[in-house]
Amino acid sequence: MNKLKKTEPYEYYWKFAVERQNIFFNRINHVNSQYFTKDTILQEYKFTNAYRASDRVSQFLIKNVIYKDIGYSNEDILFRILLFKLFNKIETWQYLESQLNDIRYDSFTYKQYNQLLDNYMKKGNVVYSNAYMMPSAVKFGQQRKHANHLLLLEYMMKDNLTEKVLHINSLQDLYLLLLSYPSFGKFLAFQYAIDINYSNLTNFSENDFIVAGPGAIDGISKCFSNYKDFSSEYIIKYMTERQDEEFQKYDLNFKSLWGRNLHLIDCQNLFCEISKYTRVALPHIEGKAKRTRIKQKFKQNHTPIEFFYPPKWNINQYIKGN
Question: Residues 309, 263: contact at Cβ < 8 Å?
């Protein structure tokens, strides 16, 4: 089999992972923000964390949606995850929670939730995050996107989804189950599978299965000149398995997530970020997507995050001491 042919951005991939993780720990250790990094690109533009679960929205999902209350039933937890992810916006969740006091499946009605979101929009609020595009689920026949998504959620829950999830045998099967529902493309179905797997509904390794998103495929196309000879999933696995060797090769001190190495989902995300980073750092490198600029500028959010990860990862006890 042919070997992967590395290009100039390949080394940048590993250097980016190290520096982005350094910023993460600088923030945790309350370093003055002006000293987070000397990298001018990271100072100017917005990039996700090296670890997906460390991003603000994922942190909110894990701590405030999934593990907020041990009294929630399995059905409640799944409903809460799906509801949050449909909009993927912290402010939308907080608004619904303020109006409903508690968010549980057994008290859910389409009419009430739809009216609340209508009212929220009338006040000029944005319901959806701009992190990724959620297809409109037009199959359900409503004029407004959120109305269709609430009906999609209702449809999924009434389809005995909780029991199906509880009896699923692999991360790949969970992905395929979600993919079978309207409006779920490959990228979204996998992202939702990862989010569900943060909970105790399932317990699969994040190294079991991966689906490459469009951004990751663009990053891959920049890092390897013969990327078309391999599947994107193979390349992401290649990076995950070689991380220790590559950090050592380039004399890089990568600070892992309290002993948790980068997993497939993290290496997938890093390809998305290196796709963006090299638009500025290496503008002569043209990826598959042929994008030339980074849209989002960095704007510091001063709201502190008390980091919390799925308890089954066994790393929460190390956070305060770092």
Answer: no
